[in-house]
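Structure, all four chains, one model.
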Amino acid sequence: MINKIVASTTEALADVPDGATILIGGFGGAGQPIELVEALIEQGARDLTLVSNNAGNGDTGIAALIAAKRVRKMMCSFPRQPDSWHFDRLYRAGEIELELVPQGNLAERIRAAGAGIGAFFTPTAYGTEIAQGKETREINGRHYVLEYPIHADYALIKAEKGDRWGNLVYRRSARNFNPVMATAARITVATVHEIVELGELDPETVVTPSVYVKRLVKIPKVVRPITALKV
Amino acid sequence: MINKIVASTTEALADVPDGATILIGGFGGAGQPIELVEALIEQGARDLTLVSNNAGNGDTGIAALIAAKRVRKMMCSFPRQPDSWHFDRLYRAGEIELELVPQGNLAERIRAAGAGIGAFFTPTAYGTEIAQGKETREINGRHYVLEYPIHADYALIKAEKGDRWGNLVYRRSARNFNPVMATAARITVATVHEIVELGELDPETVVTPSVYVKRLVKIPKVVRPITALKV
Amino acid sequence: MEQTKTQLREAVMPAAELKWTRAQMAARLASDVQEGTIMNLGVGLPTLVGNHLPKDREILIQVENGILGAGPNAPKGEEDWDLVNAGKQAIQLLPGASLFHHADSFAMMRGGHVDICVIGAYQVALNGDLANWSTGEPGAIPAIGGAMDLAAGAKELWVLMEHSTKSGESKLVERCSYPLTGLACVTRIYSDLAVIALKDGRATVLDIVPGMSFAELQKRTAVPLAQADG
Amino acid sequence: MEQTKTQLREAVMPAAELKWTRAQMAARLASDVQEGTIMNLGVGLPTLVGNHLPKDREILIQVENGILGAGPNAPKGEEDWDLVNAGKQAIQLLPGASLFHHADSFAMMRGGHVDICVIGAYQVALNGDLANWSTGEPGAIPAIGGAMDLAAGAKELWVLMEHSTKSGESKLVERCSYPLTGLACVTRIYSDLAVIALKDGRATVLDIVPGMSFAELQKRTAVPLAQADG
């Protein structure tokens, strides 16, 4: 019997080695697998490369991992947040490397890793600093930049419901990067708020097919307000 | 008020010009928008380039369009079927051009058109006749072939339910190429068996977001058995 | 009934000050959005446009984190933090909305399926170049988000920004001095002083804040302006 | 209880003829598939494997037209023609199945998420090259389907084919003469005579049809064979 359910976030991340590349889902707080990030903090792996849209908020989650100096490199599209003080401080001190990736390139590079694409030409960032040193090409009168996949050792993602095979559904915009990241890692670990019997999820509405998930942990539902950007 | 519903398949295809490139959904008969293909036959446009997984079955649908000599070029992965006699005959007579595209490249090239990707490196077909004359590259020890998007003037697709904005859901494996093709054409025309009120489709389970559909036609549900390949 | 632009102007324009407020800028832009438009609103000032869209037109807001058909902000106390916009504010969905993942969302944007993107800017050049992600200051934390993808993918890029910097320099310039977000992508500027179309290296004034002359607008703008015909 | 390979052999092997039937070939392959495997079964002979998978193991069949967790063929009269496999036969879904579109399906295949693909072949070369889509005959209608994608993407490619052509030539060859489907991709051959692993340019015999000697198998095979240790 296939059973990907593990008892705790601690057990789910026990084998993360130093130097691992880790995808972390979420867009700000929505869909961020904060319980897995907390378990990763406890677990102790160092010298990590994190790939996530933001570089942490406040003093918890990714921000706490960064504050603990466990992150060598951050790949993200939008590190600057009203409360990204831990990243800001280490970045200014030169203690954390930043690869700034436009958000769509981030999503597409992760997708490419999951989809077996070797590289792709994207119009995004052509003619900007971000494209400096990268291969470019004109195709049918438009200019493109060649971008490469982002493969990872682990993906930490947050979903709403799952089954023991690893099928997942998400909730509203908490979906964001999670389904894409699930495809691009050697080991995808998902948290869910509910584990249902095999066959309960409608095959038509499964968002992440079971093949992409290796470990599944049930966690309680806690509502966490999110820091909004100032308008 | 946005209302993409049109009264008939005839009206939906009235403006198809000669020489158009047309994506046609379906995998064999499942999810094939046969009523739209029939309307296209009646409509009269000639010199068409069709993009579809197969090259027609029996004497109906794509096969009938081919038999009427309205197709200049066929792009597909699997033209050879037990009952693909019309394509077979014209192909052997040199009266129809064939671009044979591996099925995954077909899907990915159509996706690339919809997603604004200029070209991509795929491992599929490396070292085969299909890759002859194409650019290749070694990336991280694997060999890839450069493939380009397939943009189209029209996409003819079949869905199950839709609303007046153009949101669509599909039924079982009749989904196949349809959602991907919907993204890659200037004008996507969808048939549905049911038109529901705006808001009735659950936002979580919409497969084709409304933006990709230009015209929607309701058609009756007719069960058509499909010719299975011989085992 | 739809308000005419003149009515809108009279209704919202204070007599004394020769510039549109932030709310008026957003309303002025919103009044130009046609029925059926697919729009993306950038973080910050552009988000305000959502509050001013004509109620009698169906306009679909696309949000980068996987939403088409976003509605207004959630009432206080009823926030669902699983449903947020690009600025991480809790929002609602309109009937007819759909949800999808990030790669599909940016495929939608990059693939040219968004009609209009409204975005803020540090500078816009006469040729449509956009600079909005970095002032290039040492020590500044850079952040791009979805701006470069939208610059490359949206059919029309409308910039909503103050006409001048705090120190009074024109933000519409001959050539951007700040790092670029995209090349030749801006098609229109909605500032606190004017609405300006950019096309083929020409800046054509479509509207000016009431009471300001074309000559005065030109004086405050670092590139030559043309008057719209008629 | 799981059948051992020997029991299976005794149960299904007719005494007189020194080759496995098509059903036996499929069953022999199926007995090697482990719990939790994600499999794709090509059109034709490979489809039969689905009927012989060990009942006590959960094995997921991926189908190219957007199914993970495909079940057995639909009973006659209960066909749902919106639910078909690669051979366009009406099938059923297992509990735990999921449905997705074609680009996602081939992303799954190309991205290395399918553990084993079973496919037919005209020829397999000692180095693992596969030829299965064209005999190169003039006038033949070519057809590739998903074969090249699977050859490039599956972790393991198992070929299920007759050992020899109708005219008696070995289909395991030094070098394919037919047009290739993929380079160095086949890892195992299940023929009507033997099970052969291909690795680093060596063909190692894992099993032979009962009653046939290694020497006899070698005589019928155009490349040098090695015997498995133990």
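The CA atoms of residues 193 and 220 of chain B lie 6 Å apart.
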